[in-house]
Design goal:
Layout: H1 24-41, H2 43-47, H3 53-69, H4 76-111, H5 122-145, H6 148-162, H7 177-200, H8 206-230, H9 233-268, H10 277-289, H11 293-297
Length: 301
């Protein structure tokens, strides 16, 4: 099948796929249980200082996405309670991960500059600034691991992994997953079209692109949940969403880089032994890289 848009998901599951779940509840709860396990088992590595922040955060995102996309399958109050706690935990993890992404992105940019454009201890200054931020964020995560709130979250996750609070809607045939996935795909596509239109009209579309990116992730994770039914038919949709996430993620990274460079360059550029020139060069480079965003997104529309 030749898919021309993001919303053109497989029309039917691969019924010959072995060991497929019988009900929609079985299908979705299996995927959600995997994410619960990822989050729960990350505690030991996090306490040991291992860098599992990213994989843990992705597990949280996948679980939140499942609760949202398949909302009709879950008891509303209990789903809302879990999501509130996942938002809290994701926020703490995200504060650490954001520094890692920023550090990697800026180090790559500095490495690509001609030596004559690097005036002053730019890279070491950026590393020092981000190291402080990351330590504060990591210490907050470490403290949270010993909190009553985190222990309650673990208990919640264990309950959801073993006995999720499903409604009668979960008893329908697993093939019904197609409708949920298509709905998520249409929402993601609608948000993307709206963001691109705003960008072309000269409006500030950053929040719209961020919203489109989140919706695209939810659609991708919904396809992942449906994969036991669809088999290889899910691969194309997942890869296409990954490609879109790369483009929108790059845009979000540039937003963060711009703000950071402007702030740090303004503060350090007036100090003895420092020079704001290179921060301005980097800032201009980030802005220029974003000029092709609309063109880069054309193939997804």
């Amino acid at each position: 099948m030749n898919h021309t848009t993001e919303t053109a998901d497989p029309e039917s599951p691969e019924t010959d796929t072995p060991d497929v779940p019988r009900t929609l509840g079985d299908l979705v709860s299996a995927y959600a249980a995997e994410q619960c396990t990822v989050i729960i088992e990350a505690e030991g590595p996090l306490r040991a200082g291992e860098n599992v922040v990213h994989v843990t955060r992705v597990g949280v995102r996948r679980l939140r996405s499942t609760i949202r996309v398949f909302a009709e399958l879950y008891d509303v109050p209990r789903a809302g309670n879990l999501e509130d706690e996942l938002v809290w935990w994701a926020g703490l993890l995200g504060a650490v991960r954001d520094q890692d992404i920023l550090q990697a992105g800026l180090s790559e940019r500095i490495a690509g500059l001609p030596p004559e454009l690097i005036l002053g201890p730019v890279e070491s200054s950026i590393q020092a600034e981000l190291a402080v931020r990351r330590k504060v964020a990591a210490d907050t995560v470490a403290e949270a691991l010993d909190s009553d709130r985190y222990r309650k979250l673990v208990v919640l996750l264990q309950g959801w992994r073993n006995d999720p609070p499903m409604t009668n809607e979960a008893e329908v045939d697993a093939a019904e997953v197609t409708g949920y996935v298509k709905r998520a795909g249409k929402k993601a596509q609608k948000r993307l079209v709206r963001a691109v239109a705003a960008q072309k009209a000269g409006e500030d579309a950053d929040e719209l692109f961020h919203s489109a990116r989140k919706a695209a992730k939810r659609h991708r994770y919904a396809v992942e949940a449906a994969a036991p039914m669809w088999g290889s038919k899910a691969d194309k949709a997942i890869q296409r969403r990954k490609d879109l996430q790369d483009v929108l993620g790059g845009h979000q990274d540039r937003i963060v880089q711009r703000a950071f460079l402007r702030d740090l360059g303004a503060r350090l550029g007036v100090r003895s032994g420092q020079n704001g020139f290179t921060y301005g060069v980097l800032y201009s480079q980030v802005v220029a890289d974003g000029s092709t965003l609309t063109k880069d997104l054309k193939k997804f529309l």
